[in-house]
Amino acid sequence: MTVLERNAKPGIKLLISGGGKCNITHDGPMEEVERAFLPREGRFLRPSFYRFANTDVVGLLETRGVNTYVRPNGRVFPRSGRAGDVVQAMADAVRDAGGKIALGVRVDSIKQDDEGVSGVVAAGKLIPSRTVILATGGVSYPKTGTTGDGVQWVRALGHTIVPLRPALAPIGIEPPLPREWRGIALRGGCLSVMIEGKQVAQWCDDILISHEGISGPAALELSRRAAEDLGQGQVFLCFDFVPHMEFTPLDRMINEQVQGQRGRMIGTILEAWLPNRMAEPLVRSAGVDPATRGHVLTATERRKIVHLLKSWTIGRVSGVNIERGEVTAGGVSLDEVDPHSMRSRRVKGLYLCGEILDIAGPVGGYNLQAAFSTGFVAGESAAQDFLAGTARNSGAQ
Ligand SMILES: Cc1cc2nc3c(=O)[nH]c(=O)nc-3n(C[C@H](O)[C@H](O)[C@H](O)COP(=O)(O)OP(=O)(O)OC[C@H]3O[C@@H](n4cnc5c(N)ncnc54)[C@H](O)[C@@H]3O)c2cc1C
Protein backbone atom coordinates (compact mmCIF):
# COMPACT_ATOMS: atom_id res chain seq x y z
CA MET A 1 0.00 0.00 0.00
CA THR A 2 1.38 3.38 -0.98
CA VAL A 3 0.08 6.78 0.11
CA LEU A 4 0.60 9.33 -2.67
CA GLU A 5 0.87 12.82 -1.18
CA ARG A 6 1.55 15.89 -3.28
CA ASN A 7 3.18 17.86 -0.45
CA ALA A 8 6.79 17.41 0.55
CA LYS A 9 5.62 16.67 4.11
CA PRO A 10 2.74 14.46 5.28
CA GLY A 11 -0.28 15.78 7.22
CA ILE A 12 0.10 19.50 6.50
CA LYS A 13 -3.53 20.15 7.38
CA LEU A 14 -3.21 18.16 10.58
CA LEU A 15 -0.23 20.32 11.48
CA ILE A 16 -2.32 23.50 11.37
CA SER A 17 -5.39 21.95 12.98
CA GLY A 18 -6.57 23.24 16.33
CA GLY A 19 -4.21 26.20 16.03
CA GLY A 20 -1.25 23.81 15.75
CA LYS A 21 -2.37 21.84 18.82
CA CYS A 22 -4.64 19.45 16.88
CA ASN A 23 -8.05 18.82 18.39
CA ILE A 24 -7.81 15.19 17.46
CA THR A 25 -11.30 13.99 18.37
CA HIS A 26 -14.23 14.55 20.72
CA ASP A 27 -14.68 12.63 23.94
CA GLY A 28 -17.85 10.79 24.99
CA PRO A 29 -20.17 8.10 23.64
CA MET A 30 -20.14 7.79 19.86
CA GLU A 31 -23.93 8.38 19.76
CA GLU A 32 -23.22 11.88 21.01
CA VAL A 33 -20.40 12.41 18.55
CA GLU A 34 -22.78 11.30 15.81
CA ARG A 35 -25.46 13.74 17.00
CA ALA A 36 -23.09 16.67 16.44
CA PHE A 37 -23.52 16.14 12.67
CA LEU A 38 -26.59 16.82 10.57
CA PRO A 39 -28.87 13.76 10.92
CA ARG A 40 -28.24 12.54 7.35
CA GLU A 41 -24.46 12.83 7.83
CA GLY A 42 -24.61 11.22 11.28
CA ARG A 43 -26.54 8.23 9.92
CA PHE A 44 -23.92 7.76 7.21
CA LEU A 45 -21.07 7.99 9.71
CA ARG A 46 -22.60 5.60 12.28
CA PRO A 47 -21.10 2.30 11.00
CA SER A 48 -17.59 3.72 10.69
CA PHE A 49 -17.87 5.53 14.03
CA TYR A 50 -18.50 2.19 15.72
CA ARG A 51 -15.79 0.43 13.70
CA PHE A 52 -13.15 3.03 14.61
CA ALA A 53 -14.28 5.20 17.51
CA ASN A 54 -12.75 8.14 19.37
CA THR A 55 -11.25 5.66 21.87
CA ASP A 56 -9.51 3.89 18.96
CA VAL A 57 -7.97 7.17 17.78
CA VAL A 58 -6.73 7.89 21.30
CA GLY A 59 -5.54 4.26 21.67
CA LEU A 60 -3.60 4.43 18.40
CA LEU A 61 -1.85 7.59 19.57
CA GLU A 62 -1.18 6.42 23.10
CA THR A 63 0.40 3.13 21.95
CA ARG A 64 2.81 5.32 19.99
CA GLY A 65 3.66 7.44 23.02
CA VAL A 66 1.37 10.40 22.25
CA ASN A 67 -0.61 10.95 25.44
CA THR A 68 -3.83 12.89 25.19
CA TYR A 69 -6.06 14.89 27.49
CA VAL A 70 -9.69 15.96 27.40
CA ARG A 71 -10.67 19.60 27.90
CA PRO A 72 -13.81 20.34 29.95
CA ASN A 73 -15.69 20.95 26.67
CA GLY A 74 -14.93 17.40 25.49
CA ARG A 75 -12.23 18.31 22.99
CA VAL A 76 -9.29 15.90 22.95
CA PHE A 77 -5.73 17.15 22.35
CA PRO A 78 -2.24 15.64 22.52
CA ARG A 79 -0.81 16.45 25.95
CA SER A 80 2.33 17.84 24.31
CA GLY A 81 0.22 20.46 22.52
CA ARG A 82 2.02 19.56 19.29
CA ALA A 83 0.10 18.52 16.17
CA GLY A 84 3.45 17.28 14.82
CA ASP A 85 3.38 14.41 17.34
CA VAL A 86 0.02 13.29 15.94
CA VAL A 87 1.29 13.40 12.35
CA GLN A 88 4.39 11.42 13.33
CA ALA A 89 2.29 8.76 15.09
CA MET A 90 -0.02 8.45 12.08
CA ALA A 91 2.88 8.21 9.64
CA ASP A 92 4.50 5.56 11.86
CA ALA A 93 1.21 3.63 11.89
CA VAL A 94 1.23 3.56 8.07
CA ARG A 95 4.80 2.32 7.96
CA ASP A 96 4.25 -0.23 10.77
CA ALA A 97 1.41 -1.69 8.69
CA GLY A 98 3.83 -2.16 5.79
CA GLY A 99 2.71 0.91 3.88
CA LYS A 100 4.85 3.51 2.12
CA ILE A 101 4.33 7.26 1.98
CA ALA A 102 5.46 8.74 -1.34
CA LEU A 103 5.84 12.50 -0.86
CA GLY A 104 5.83 15.14 -3.58
CA VAL A 105 3.69 12.99 -5.88
CA ARG A 106 0.75 14.90 -7.32
CA VAL A 107 -1.87 12.62 -8.82
CA ASP A 108 -3.39 13.99 -12.03
CA SER A 109 -6.26 11.57 -12.63
CA ILE A 110 -7.81 8.19 -11.91
CA LYS A 111 -8.11 5.65 -14.69
CA GLN A 112 -11.00 3.28 -15.17
CA ASP A 113 -11.61 0.33 -17.54
CA ASP A 114 -14.36 -2.27 -17.91
CA GLU A 115 -13.40 -3.94 -14.62
CA GLY A 116 -13.38 -0.73 -12.58
CA VAL A 117 -10.48 1.38 -11.36
CA SER A 118 -7.25 0.55 -13.18
CA GLY A 119 -4.81 2.99 -11.57
CA VAL A 120 -3.83 6.62 -11.12
CA VAL A 121 -1.75 8.90 -13.27
CA ALA A 122 1.00 10.98 -11.66
CA ALA A 123 3.62 13.01 -13.56
CA GLY A 124 2.27 11.56 -16.79
CA LYS A 125 2.83 7.94 -15.72
CA LEU A 126 0.17 5.35 -14.96
CA ILE A 127 0.57 3.70 -11.57
CA PRO A 128 -1.55 0.55 -12.03
CA SER A 129 -3.85 -0.49 -9.19
CA ARG A 130 -7.26 -2.14 -8.96
CA THR A 131 -7.76 -0.55 -5.53
CA VAL A 132 -7.70 3.23 -5.00
CA ILE A 133 -8.70 5.04 -1.81
CA LEU A 134 -9.48 8.68 -2.41
CA ALA A 135 -8.71 10.95 0.57
CA THR A 136 -7.92 14.25 -1.13
CA GLY A 137 -10.02 16.38 1.24
CA GLY A 138 -12.07 19.46 0.37
CA VAL A 139 -11.16 22.83 -1.12
CA SER A 140 -10.51 24.98 1.92
CA TYR A 141 -6.98 26.17 2.76
CA PRO A 142 -5.80 25.26 -0.77
CA LYS A 143 -2.21 26.11 0.16
CA THR A 144 -2.21 22.93 2.26
CA GLY A 145 -2.64 20.89 -0.93
CA THR A 146 -6.42 20.64 -0.97
CA THR A 147 -7.36 22.17 -4.29
CA GLY A 148 -10.29 19.86 -4.96
CA ASP A 149 -8.48 17.59 -7.44
CA GLY A 150 -10.29 14.49 -6.22
CA VAL A 151 -13.67 16.14 -6.66
CA GLN A 152 -12.95 16.68 -10.37
CA TRP A 153 -11.86 13.06 -10.84
CA VAL A 154 -14.87 11.49 -9.19
CA ARG A 155 -17.23 13.78 -11.07
CA ALA A 156 -15.60 12.57 -14.30
CA LEU A 157 -16.05 8.98 -13.07
CA GLY A 158 -19.80 9.53 -12.77
CA HIS A 159 -20.28 10.46 -9.12
CA THR A 160 -22.71 13.19 -8.09
CA ILE A 161 -21.07 16.12 -6.33
CA VAL A 162 -23.23 18.02 -3.85
CA PRO A 163 -22.18 21.67 -4.47
CA LEU A 164 -19.14 22.65 -2.40
CA ARG A 165 -19.85 25.34 0.18
CA PRO A 166 -17.89 26.99 2.95
CA ALA A 167 -18.22 25.77 6.54
CA LEU A 168 -16.48 26.82 9.75
CA ALA A 169 -15.27 29.96 7.97
CA PRO A 170 -15.01 33.65 8.95
CA ILE A 171 -17.99 35.72 7.81
CA GLY A 172 -17.56 38.92 5.78
CA ILE A 173 -19.60 41.91 6.97
CA GLU A 174 -20.91 45.00 5.12
CA PRO A 175 -20.43 47.80 5.87
CA PRO A 176 -16.97 46.91 7.23
CA LEU A 177 -16.66 47.13 11.00
CA PRO A 178 -14.39 49.91 12.31
CA ARG A 179 -10.70 49.10 11.96
CA GLU A 180 -10.06 49.88 15.64
CA TRP A 181 -12.40 47.05 16.68
CA ARG A 182 -10.24 44.39 15.06
CA GLY A 183 -9.05 41.82 17.56
CA ILE A 184 -11.89 42.45 20.02
CA ALA A 185 -13.44 39.24 21.37
CA LEU A 186 -17.09 39.39 22.41
CA ARG A 187 -17.51 36.65 24.98
CA GLY A 188 -20.48 34.76 26.32
CA GLY A 189 -23.04 36.09 23.85
CA CYS A 190 -25.26 34.60 21.15
CA LEU A 191 -24.94 35.22 17.41
CA SER A 192 -28.02 35.04 15.19
CA VAL A 193 -28.53 34.76 11.45
CA MET A 194 -31.46 36.96 10.40
CA ILE A 195 -33.45 37.02 7.17
CA GLU A 196 -36.15 39.64 6.69
CA GLY A 197 -36.03 40.43 10.40
CA LYS A 198 -36.54 36.79 11.44
CA GLN A 199 -33.99 34.74 13.29
CA VAL A 200 -33.23 31.59 11.26
CA ALA A 201 -30.29 30.25 13.26
CA GLN A 202 -28.48 31.00 16.50
CA TRP A 203 -25.26 29.86 18.15
CA CYS A 204 -24.16 30.91 21.62
CA ASP A 205 -20.42 31.31 21.98
CA ASP A 206 -17.69 33.92 21.52
CA ILE A 207 -17.09 35.93 18.36
CA LEU A 208 -13.94 37.70 17.30
CA ILE A 209 -13.85 40.85 15.18
CA SER A 210 -11.37 40.33 12.36
CA HIS A 211 -10.15 42.21 9.30
CA GLU A 212 -12.70 40.50 7.07
CA GLY A 213 -15.68 40.64 9.43
CA ILE A 214 -16.22 38.20 12.25
CA SER A 215 -14.62 34.97 13.26
CA GLY A 216 -14.49 32.93 16.49
CA PRO A 217 -16.53 29.83 17.45
CA ALA A 218 -20.07 31.21 17.00
CA ALA A 219 -19.25 32.78 13.63
CA LEU A 220 -17.57 29.59 12.39
CA GLU A 221 -20.53 27.47 13.45
CA LEU A 222 -23.05 29.70 11.67
CA SER A 223 -20.98 30.33 8.56
CA ARG A 224 -22.36 27.32 6.67
CA ARG A 225 -25.93 28.47 7.34
CA ALA A 226 -25.13 32.11 6.47
CA ALA A 227 -23.46 31.05 3.21
CA GLU A 228 -26.41 28.87 2.23
CA ASP A 229 -28.94 31.59 3.07
CA LEU A 230 -27.04 34.14 0.99
CA GLY A 231 -28.46 32.48 -2.09
CA GLN A 232 -31.95 33.45 -0.95
CA GLY A 233 -31.46 37.17 -0.32
CA GLN A 234 -29.94 39.53 2.18
CA VAL A 235 -28.67 37.96 5.38
CA PHE A 236 -27.91 39.94 8.53
CA LEU A 237 -26.10 38.99 11.73
CA CYS A 238 -27.18 40.10 15.20
CA PHE A 239 -25.44 39.66 18.51
CA ASP A 240 -27.02 39.34 21.95
CA PHE A 241 -24.48 40.56 24.51
CA VAL A 242 -26.60 39.42 27.48
CA PRO A 243 -28.33 36.18 26.46
CA HIS A 244 -28.99 35.08 30.04
CA MET A 245 -31.40 38.02 30.63
CA GLU A 246 -34.67 38.82 28.92
CA PHE A 247 -35.44 42.35 27.77
CA THR A 248 -37.53 43.48 30.80
CA PRO A 249 -35.24 42.33 33.64
CA LEU A 250 -32.27 43.75 31.72
CA ASP A 251 -34.07 47.07 31.32
CA ARG A 252 -34.74 47.06 35.07
CA MET A 253 -31.11 46.31 35.84
CA ILE A 254 -29.79 49.03 33.50
CA ASN A 255 -32.25 51.45 35.11
CA GLU A 256 -30.91 50.58 38.57
CA GLN A 257 -27.34 51.13 37.37
CA VAL A 258 -28.21 54.45 35.76
CA GLN A 259 -30.02 55.61 38.91
CA GLY A 260 -27.02 54.59 41.00
CA GLN A 261 -24.62 56.57 38.77
CA ARG A 262 -26.80 59.55 37.86
CA GLY A 263 -23.88 61.88 37.14
CA ARG A 264 -22.01 59.47 34.87
CA MET A 265 -22.25 59.38 31.11
CA ILE A 266 -24.20 56.47 29.64
CA GLY A 267 -21.28 55.62 27.32
CA THR A 268 -19.09 55.12 30.40
CA ILE A 269 -21.75 53.21 32.36
CA LEU A 270 -22.08 50.77 29.47
CA GLU A 271 -18.40 49.92 29.53
CA ALA A 272 -19.46 47.38 32.17
CA TRP A 273 -21.48 45.62 29.44
CA LEU A 274 -19.56 46.34 26.26
CA PRO A 275 -15.86 46.39 25.35
CA ASN A 276 -14.49 49.91 26.04
CA ARG A 277 -13.58 50.57 22.41
CA MET A 278 -17.10 49.72 21.27
CA ALA A 279 -19.30 51.27 23.96
CA GLU A 280 -19.45 54.87 22.71
CA PRO A 281 -19.86 54.17 18.98
CA LEU A 282 -22.48 51.50 19.65
CA VAL A 283 -24.50 53.76 21.95
CA ARG A 284 -24.34 56.47 19.26
CA SER A 285 -25.45 53.96 16.61
CA ALA A 286 -28.50 53.20 18.77
CA GLY A 287 -29.48 56.87 18.49
CA VAL A 288 -28.38 57.89 21.98
CA ASP A 289 -25.71 60.49 22.75
CA PRO A 290 -23.04 58.60 24.77
CA ALA A 291 -22.36 61.80 26.75
CA THR A 292 -25.92 61.73 28.17
CA ARG A 293 -25.77 61.68 31.97
CA GLY A 294 -27.67 58.98 33.85
CA HIS A 295 -30.14 61.43 35.42
CA VAL A 296 -31.29 62.80 32.04
CA LEU A 297 -31.49 59.48 30.17
CA THR A 298 -35.11 58.96 29.14
CA ALA A 299 -36.94 55.62 29.34
CA THR A 300 -37.09 55.56 25.53
CA GLU A 301 -33.32 56.06 25.28
CA ARG A 302 -32.76 53.38 27.91
CA ARG A 303 -34.90 50.92 25.97
CA LYS A 304 -32.90 51.68 22.81
CA ILE A 305 -29.79 50.71 24.74
CA VAL A 306 -31.37 47.51 26.03
CA HIS A 307 -32.39 46.71 22.47
CA LEU A 308 -28.80 47.28 21.38
CA LEU A 309 -27.48 44.91 24.07
CA LYS A 310 -30.04 42.23 23.20
CA SER A 311 -29.89 42.54 19.42
CA TRP A 312 -26.99 44.48 17.98
CA THR A 313 -27.11 44.30 14.18
CA ILE A 314 -23.50 43.61 13.31
CA GLY A 315 -24.15 44.10 9.60
CA ARG A 316 -25.09 42.40 6.38
CA VAL A 317 -23.28 39.22 5.39
CA SER A 318 -21.14 40.13 2.39
CA GLY A 319 -19.78 36.64 1.80
CA VAL A 320 -18.22 33.56 3.33
CA ASN A 321 -14.90 32.60 1.78
CA ILE A 322 -14.71 28.86 1.13
CA GLU A 323 -10.92 28.94 1.08
CA ARG A 324 -10.81 30.26 4.65
CA GLY A 325 -13.10 27.57 6.06
CA GLU A 326 -11.85 24.82 8.32
CA VAL A 327 -13.95 22.37 6.33
CA THR A 328 -15.79 22.17 3.03
CA ALA A 329 -19.48 21.35 3.07
CA GLY A 330 -20.76 19.40 0.09
CA GLY A 331 -18.76 16.78 -1.80
CA VAL A 332 -19.38 13.25 -3.00
CA SER A 333 -23.05 12.37 -2.51
CA LEU A 334 -23.48 10.03 0.45
CA ASP A 335 -26.06 7.98 -1.46
CA GLU A 336 -23.29 6.82 -3.77
CA VAL A 337 -20.95 5.45 -1.09
CA ASP A 338 -21.57 2.36 1.07
CA PRO A 339 -21.22 3.54 4.70
CA HIS A 340 -20.18 0.06 5.90
CA SER A 341 -17.19 -0.22 3.57
CA MET A 342 -16.70 3.26 1.99
CA ARG A 343 -16.86 1.53 -1.40
CA SER A 344 -18.03 3.68 -4.25
CA ARG A 345 -21.38 2.45 -5.51
CA ARG A 346 -20.46 3.79 -8.94
CA VAL A 347 -16.92 2.59 -9.60
CA LYS A 348 -15.53 -0.80 -8.66
CA GLY A 349 -12.25 -0.62 -6.74
CA LEU A 350 -12.76 2.98 -5.63
CA TYR A 351 -13.11 3.89 -1.92
CA LEU A 352 -13.82 7.37 -0.58
CA CYS A 353 -13.20 8.82 2.85
CA GLY A 354 -12.77 12.06 4.78
CA GLU A 355 -13.69 15.53 3.73
CA ILE A 356 -14.22 14.70 0.06
CA LEU A 357 -17.54 13.23 1.21
CA ASP A 358 -20.61 15.44 1.68
CA ILE A 359 -19.95 15.79 5.42
CA ALA A 360 -19.05 18.81 7.55
CA GLY A 361 -19.18 18.64 11.32
CA PRO A 362 -18.91 21.41 13.89
CA VAL A 363 -15.77 22.62 15.66
CA GLY A 364 -14.57 20.24 18.39
CA GLY A 365 -12.57 17.37 16.88
CA TYR A 366 -15.57 16.00 14.96
CA ASN A 367 -14.16 16.47 11.49
CA LEU A 368 -10.92 14.68 12.19
CA GLN A 369 -12.85 11.85 13.86
CA ALA A 370 -15.02 11.56 10.74
CA ALA A 371 -11.88 11.47 8.56
CA PHE A 372 -10.19 8.86 10.79
CA SER A 373 -13.27 6.61 11.07
CA THR A 374 -14.14 6.67 7.36
CA GLY A 375 -10.44 6.37 6.50
CA PHE A 376 -10.04 3.30 8.70
CA VAL A 377 -13.08 1.59 7.19
CA ALA A 378 -11.99 2.47 3.63
CA GLY A 379 -8.53 1.03 4.33
CA GLU A 380 -9.90 -2.11 5.92
CA SER A 381 -12.40 -2.93 3.17
CA ALA A 382 -9.93 -2.04 0.41
CA ALA A 383 -7.42 -4.45 1.97
CA GLN A 384 -10.06 -7.18 2.31
CA ASP A 385 -11.20 -6.74 -1.28
CA PHE A 386 -7.62 -6.69 -2.51
CA LEU A 387 -6.77 -9.91 -0.63
CA ALA A 388 -9.98 -11.60 -1.81
CA GLY A 389 -9.13 -10.61 -5.40
CA THR A 390 -5.58 -11.88 -5.04
CA ALA A 391 -6.81 -15.21 -3.61
CA ARG A 392 -9.33 -15.56 -6.45
CA ASN A 393 -6.69 -14.86 -9.06
CA SER A 394 -4.16 -17.25 -7.56
CA GLY A 395 -6.89 -19.93 -7.20
CA ALA A 396 -7.72 -19.55 -10.87
CA GLN A 397 -4.13 -20.00 -11.96
C1 LIG B 1 -7.10 25.70 9.91
C2 LIG B 1 -7.80 24.39 10.16
C3 LIG B 1 -7.93 23.90 11.46
C4 LIG B 1 -8.61 22.70 11.68
N1 LIG B 1 -8.68 22.23 12.97
C5 LIG B 1 -9.33 21.06 13.21
C6 LIG B 1 -9.34 20.50 14.51
O1 LIG B 1 -8.67 20.98 15.42
N2 LIG B 1 -10.08 19.37 14.71
C7 LIG B 1 -10.79 18.77 13.70
O2 LIG B 1 -11.47 17.77 13.94
N3 LIG B 1 -10.74 19.25 12.43
C8 LIG B 1 -10.02 20.36 12.17
N4 LIG B 1 -9.94 20.84 10.89
C9 LIG B 1 -10.59 20.06 9.80
C10 LIG B 1 -9.74 18.82 9.48
O3 LIG B 1 -8.37 19.19 9.42
C11 LIG B 1 -10.17 18.21 8.14
O4 LIG B 1 -11.55 17.97 8.17
C12 LIG B 1 -9.43 16.88 7.90
O5 LIG B 1 -8.04 17.11 7.85
C13 LIG B 1 -9.90 16.22 6.63
O6 LIG B 1 -9.12 15.08 6.42
P1 LIG B 1 -8.91 14.46 4.97
O7 LIG B 1 -7.94 13.35 5.16
O8 LIG B 1 -10.20 14.16 4.35
O9 LIG B 1 -8.26 15.63 4.10
P2 LIG B 1 -6.94 16.48 4.34
O10 LIG B 1 -6.46 16.37 5.74
O11 LIG B 1 -7.25 17.81 3.81
O12 LIG B 1 -5.86 15.74 3.45
C14 LIG B 1 -5.96 15.65 2.06
C15 LIG B 1 -4.57 15.41 1.52
O13 LIG B 1 -4.67 15.07 0.13
C16 LIG B 1 -3.58 15.66 -0.54
N5 LIG B 1 -3.91 15.82 -1.95
C17 LIG B 1 -4.90 16.57 -2.50
N6 LIG B 1 -4.89 16.49 -3.84
C18 LIG B 1 -3.86 15.65 -4.15
C19 LIG B 1 -3.34 15.19 -5.38
N7 LIG B 1 -3.83 15.56 -6.56
N8 LIG B 1 -2.29 14.33 -5.35
C20 LIG B 1 -1.74 13.95 -4.17
N9 LIG B 1 -2.18 14.39 -2.97
C21 LIG B 1 -3.24 15.23 -2.96
C22 LIG B 1 -3.41 17.00 0.16
O14 LIG B 1 -2.11 17.52 -0.05
C23 LIG B 1 -3.68 16.64 1.61
O15 LIG B 1 -2.51 16.33 2.32
C24 LIG B 1 -9.22 22.00 10.61
C25 LIG B 1 -9.06 22.48 9.32
C26 LIG B 1 -8.34 23.65 9.08
C27 LIG B 1 -8.18 24.15 7.67
Question: Layout of SSEs?
Answer:
Elements (H helix, E strand, L loop, with lengths): L1 E4 L6 H5 L8 E2 L3 H6 L3 H13 L2 H10 L4 E3 L4 E4 L4 H14 L3 E4 L3 E7 L2 E7 L2 E4 L3 E3 L14 H8 L4 E7 L3 E4 L10 E2 L3 E6 L2 E7 L2 E3 L3 E3 L1 H14 L5 E5 L6 H14 L5 H4 L6 H10 L13 H12 L1 E9 L6 E6 L17 E3 L13 H31 L1
Parallel strand pairs: 1-5, 9-20
Antiparallel strand pairs: 2-4, 3-4, 6-7, 7-8, 10-19, 11-16, 11-18, 12-15, 13-14, 13-17, 15-16, 17-18
The structure holds flavin-adenine dinucleotide.
Assigned CATH superfamily of the largest domain:
FAD/NAD(P)-binding domain
- End-to-end distance, in Å? 24 Å
- Widest sheet, order of strands: 12-15-16-11-18-17-13-14
Structural class: alpha+beta
Question: Can you describe this structure in just a few lines?
Answer:
The protein has 397 residues and is α+β, with helices and mostly antiparallel strands. 36% of the residues lie in helices and 23% in strands. It is built from twelve helices and 20 strands.
Write up what this structure looks like:
The protein contains twelve helices and 20 strands. The protein has helices at residues 12-16, 30-35, 39-51, 54-63, 83-96, 149-156, 217-230, 247-260, 266-269, 276-285, 299-310, 366-396; strands at residues 2-5, 25-26, 68-70, 75-78, 100-103, 107-113, 116-122, 125-128, 132-134, 161-167, 171-174, 185-186, 190-195, 198-204, 207-209, 213-215, 236-240, 312-320, 327-332, 350-352. The longest helix is centred in the C-terminal third of the chain and has 31 residues, at 366-396. A hairpin with a 3-residue loop joins strand 15 (207-209) and strand 16 (213-215). The protein is of the alpha+beta class and 397 residues long. It is elongated, with a radius of gyration of 25 Å. The model has no long low-confidence stretch (mean pLDDT 95). The chain has an eight-stranded antiparallel beta sheet. A three-stranded antiparallel beta sheet has the order 2-4-3. The protein has a three-stranded antiparallel beta sheet with strand order 6-7-8, with helices on one face. Helix 8 crosses helix 11 (299-310). Flavin-adenine dinucleotide binds at residues 4-7, 12-13, 16-18, 22-23, 106-107, 135-137, 140-141, 145-146, 149, 326-327, 354-355, 365-368, 371.
